[in-house]
Give the backbone structure.
Amino acid sequence: MVKTGFLDLAPHRNFPAYQLPHNRRSEDLSIQQVKERFPQFQIGEPYWGAYDPEGALLRPEVTITTYVRLAMQRGAHILGNTKVLDWKSDAGGVTVITDRETHTADRIVFCAGPWTGKLLMELGIAVTVTRMSFAWVWPLTNFKAYEPGSLPCWCIEDEDGIYYGFPMMSDVPGYKIGLHRYGETAEPDSFNRTPNAQDEEFIRKGLRRYFPRRQQPLGCPAHLPLRPHRGRRADHRPTPRPRPRDPLRPAVRSGLQVHPGLRRDRRRLCRERPD
């Protein structure tokens, strides 16, 4: 986990999550204070900011690897590259049928990403998978202003959805920007990973509105990230492929997000350290 702080920007001053009695560390910022402390952003009235200095970025690759290692140390068996075909439950427990063999257990936990809907269909749980857009961009000037310690994790409420992102990590070129929205529905088994014109335009629009300084593109493939109802899952790192003739063109990627129902989870996009 990398402590970065977390900046929440919205065209109103109503931040109920930060006004709870136990949350005394958050700061209420005027737009002028936001500009003075975080000049990377171009933003004006009627926006307000809420800043939590304890906000942090959770590195999911490291987190998942750590959980797997700890589980194996305690006797768990990890079955990699194994496809779940079906499952069923009865009074004796649960049975999971894979493309290799059948397993039985007392309980089952579903962590199937965008395929969760298929596994839970018989339970009457509706899950809608939709397309999303995100990118990594490189600032052509003052790149240190986009590193941890200068640029916090952030989200901006916008008419198109919620733009969000986090600073540059030492092993990833560029800072991230994404758009959290209800996009077009998608099928995870036949999802087109190629970014389209709409994916690119959503990112360009966010950069024009909130990061006006010139940005160096970074190319990378599209893949299948997941934005579940409660939590956040990671994106793989991009492969650099600069396009110097188009300084605003970002490394656009398209992915999937899952919507079990209405949600407002922009404050969950960046994890916080517990008190």
